[in-house]
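Input (Protein NrnU):
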Amino acid sequence: MVTLILGLALFLGTHSVRIFADDWRTAQRARHGEKMWKLGYTLISLIGFGLIIWGFGMAQRDALVLWNPPMAMRHISALLTLIAFILLAATYVPRNSIKASLHHPMVLGVSVWAFAHLLANGTLADLILFSSFLVWAILSYLAARNRDRVAGTRYPSGTMGGTLAAVGAGVAAWVLFAFWLHGLLIGVKPIP
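Output:
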């Protein structure tokens, strides 16, 4: 469990600098240069991500079961992860109404993904992993919206084509992941 927690601290810690120390981040980027900042950020994030994977795998071997979610939670979780994939796609597809109205769909997608996994899983490792990401995503979204408000950021309005492309890309990615990649990479088939 220690490895999982260390990985979360490194990964989410690097991703929280802008939430808690945006001025320090700006100063460090100016001091060390954009490339060095991104290199260090990426390196620490990758180490943290690797430790999360390794630590979660170890924690699941001797999993402490806190509760056994009802089977219906798997279906609800599948629907919620579909929404999360659409939000993730909306981050990258230009001129879509989802991003135009929500402004930061990626962190909202992470929060929906984490919440969905909390509903469908009941071990201590699941609780630590997914609740950490859920709390981080909520704080990140609130901080980003506050930065937008202070800066007077305006997002371009979405188009029907951009919105349909975002939804289509999200659904396609979800189908690929839910029916094939999740079982291959994670070892659990959410939709048999």
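The chain has a mean pLDDT of 94.
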